[in-house]
Design goal:
The protein has 289 residues and is an all-alpha fold. It is built from 13 helices and no strands.
C-alpha cells in the first residue's frame, strides 16, 4: 500500500500528539497522588488539609514530573520507545513547566511565605537528580534515585502540616512512613525499567543486586512498616485499619510485580502510584462516619 508524504506526516503528527497527551496524563496522575499524600499527612497530624497547599503541591509535582519526561530521555526511550516523539514538544513542555511551577510558588506564598522554600525542595532535588552538571547526575549514583525521590516526597508531606501544627512526633511519623513507602515504590519502578537503566549504565538496585535480592529487600522494607507501627501507634490510631491494609497491600503488589513476567506498565501506575488515592478516599470515608 502506497503512503504519500502528507499522509506519513499526519501519522507522525498524531503519534507525536498522543505521546504528549500521554505524558501530560501521566504527570497529572502522579500529581493527584501527591495531593493524596498531603491529605493523608494532614490527617495523621489530626486536622483537615489546607486546600491551597493541596493545589500548590499538585502544580509543583505536575510540573516537575512533566519536565522529567524530557530530561530522562536517554534511558526512558529504551524503556518506552514512544517517548521519542516528545522531542518535538520540548518547548511546550518547558512552557507547561514554567507556568505550572510559577503558579505553585504563588499559591504557596499566599498560604505562608515559607511554603515557597518547601516547594523548592522537589525542584532542587529534581535538578540534581535529572540534569547532568559537570558529569554528575544524582540518578547515576547508586541509591541516588530512590533516596532523592523518597526524601523529597517525605519532606514536603511532613513539613506542610508541621507549619500549621508544630508536632514533632507527627512530623517524624509522617516523614518515615512516606520515605519507606517511597523507597518501596521507586525500587519497584526500577524493576520495570531495569533493561533501559542497565543499557544507560544507571546503577539502580535491581541492576546491581538482581531481581531475587531486590525482592527480598522490598519485603524487608515493607516489614519495617510493622516496626514503624509500634513506634507511632498513637499517632495513627484513628487510621490504624487503613495503615494495616496499606502494609498488607504492600506485600501483595511486591509479590505480584516481582513474580509476574513483564506485567503491563499501566499496572504500575494503577496499583502503585494510585495507591495513595485509595487510602485518601478511605480516610475521607472514616472522617465522614
Amino acid at each position: 500500500m502506497n503512503i504519500t508524504k502528507a499522509e506519513l506526516e499526519r501519522s507522525l503528527h498524531r503519534t507525536s500528539e498522543r505521546a504528549l497527551y500521554s505524558s501530560l496524563f501521566s504527570s497529572i496522575n502522579v500529581a493527584l497522588s501527591c495531593v493524596a499524600v498531603l491529605y493523608i499527612s494532614f490527617s495523621f497530624f489530626g486536622f483537615q488539609p489546607n486546600i491551597y497547599v493541596l493545589v500548590s503541591g499538585f502544580m509543583a509535582t505536575f510540573s516537575i514530573y512533566l519536565l522529567n519526561t524530557v530530561t530522562d530521555f536517554k534511558e526512558d526511550i529504551i524503556n518506552n520507545p514512544q517517548k521519542a516523539e516528545l522531542i518535538s514538544h520540548r518547548k511546550k513542555i518547558y512552557i507547561f513547566f514554567i507556568v505550572s511551577y510559577t503558579t505553585s510558588l504563588f499559591v504557596g506564598y499566599l498560604v505562608k511565605p515559607v511554603c515557597v522554600l518547601i516547594l523548592l525542595i522537589p525542584l532542587l532535588v529534581g535538578i540534581f537528580y535529572s540534569i547532568e552538571i559537570k558529569d554528575f547526575r544524582l540518578k547515576n549514583v547508586f541509591l541516588g534515585k530512590n533516596v532523592s525521590i523518597s526524601f523529597s516526597w517525605a519532606m514536603d508531606a511532613s513539613l506542610f502540616p508541621f507549619l500549621f501544627q508544630k508536632n514533632i512526633i507527627s512530623f517524624f511519623a509522617v516523614f518515615s512512613f512516606i520515605f519507606l513507602k517511597g523507597m518501596i515504590n521507586t525500587i519497584l519502578f526500577d524493576l520495570r525499567d531495569i533493561r533501559g537503566d542497565a543499557i544507560a549504565n544507571i546503577k539502580t538496585i535491581p541492576v546491581v543486586i538482581g531481581k531475587k535480592m531486590t525482592t527480598l529487600l522490598l519485603i524487608l522494607l515493607n516489614s519495617l512498616l510493622i516496626i514503624w507501627l509500634f513506634f507511632f501507634f498513637n499517632v495513627i490510631l484513628p487510621y490504624l485499619v487503613i495503615v494495616l491494609l496499606c502494609i498488607a497491600y504492600g506485600y501483595i503488589y511486591i509479590l505480584f510485580f516481582t513474580l509476574s513476567k513483564n506485567p503491563p506498565s499501566y499496572l504500575y501506575s494503577i496499583l502503585v502510584d494510585d495507591e495513595w488515592l485509595w487510602w485518601m478516599f478511605l480516610i475521607m470515608f472514616i472522617q465522614m462516619i
